[in-house]
């Protein structure tokens, strides 16, 4: 395996671990503090039984996830600025604000400017427990910034720049400034099958399924919880 591939795999593993820590939160609260926090929650989630039916998590897993979520978001919902603040803790060496914005948009399915626990676990259920098609559809929706059903080079460039900004330029000391553009060109060369300048959901899923590295990277989240 090349050094570049090893380095990328380490970064993906690191992201998965950070995501895990964000989900779990601080699980050392005592019962008195838990009772107090529950009393101050403004938004109460649907019953765990109902969420269990609607997601691929067990009731116990949902309880653990909720405990971590309310530890970070005592009001029961998180707005975009708070989401960015939380996410920035995991990438102190870079600027994660733009990537966090895109991620927040993907979780905010109701487009009301906030992410509830339900929003969070529905998205998480797809990412961690969904089928390959489910996960790829979610990823496509993340990259399709204006939600018009296709990914343009401009959208992919925005995504790639946000990722490089998040990881920090000093993480990759030999990286050239035009690296994001080269990555986008490679992405389109591989996925834009009919060469019309955009990538459709069908092209995206078909290309991803044929890419061994993409399939392996998706498996990193299989055992996060």
UniProtKB/TrEMBL annotation:
Molecular functions (GO terms): calcium ion binding; potassium channel activity; potassium channel regulator activity
Coiled-coil stretches: none
Superkingdom as given in the UniProt entry: Eukaryota
SUPFAM superfamilies noted in UniProt: EF-hand
Predominant location: membrane
CDD domains: EFh (cd00051)
GO cellular component, one term: voltage-gated potassium channel complex
Keyword Transport appears in the UniProt entry: yes
Presence of keyword Cell membrane: yes
Family: Belongs to the recoverin family.
Protein name: Potassium voltage-gated channel interacting protein 2
Species per Swiss-Prot/TrEMBL record: Sparus aurata (Gilthead sea bream)
Lineage, top ranks: Eukaryota, Metazoa, Chordata, Craniata, Vertebrata
């Amino acid at each position: 395996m090349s050094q570049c591939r090893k380095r990328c795999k380490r970064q993906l593993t690191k992201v998965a671990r950070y995501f895990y820590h964000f989900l779990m939160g601080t699980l050392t609260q005592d019962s008195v503090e838990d009772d107090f926090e529950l009393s101050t929650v403004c938004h109460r989630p649907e019953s765990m039984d109902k969420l269990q039916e609607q997601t691929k998590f067990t009731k116990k897993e949902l309880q653990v996830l909720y405990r971590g979520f309310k530890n970070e978001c005592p009001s029961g919902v998180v707005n975009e600025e708070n989401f960015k603040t939380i996410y920035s803790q995991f990438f102190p060496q870079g600027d994660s604000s733009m990537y966090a914005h895109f991620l927040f948009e993907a979780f905010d399915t109701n487009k009301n400017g906030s992410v509830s626990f339900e929003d969070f676990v529905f998205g998480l259920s797809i990412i961690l427990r969904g089928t390959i098609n489910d996960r790829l559809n979610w990823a496509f929706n993340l990259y399709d910034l204006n939600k018009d059903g296709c990914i343009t080079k401009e959208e992919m460039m925005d995504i790639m720049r946000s990722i490089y900004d998040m990881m920090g330029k000093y993480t990759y000391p030999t990286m050239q400034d035009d690296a994001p553009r080269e990555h986008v060109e490679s992405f389109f060369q591989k996925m834009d099958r009919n060469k019309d300048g955009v990538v459709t959901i069908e092209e995206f899923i078909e290309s991803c399924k044929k890419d061994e590295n993409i399939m392996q990277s998706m498996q990193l989240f299989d055992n996060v919880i």
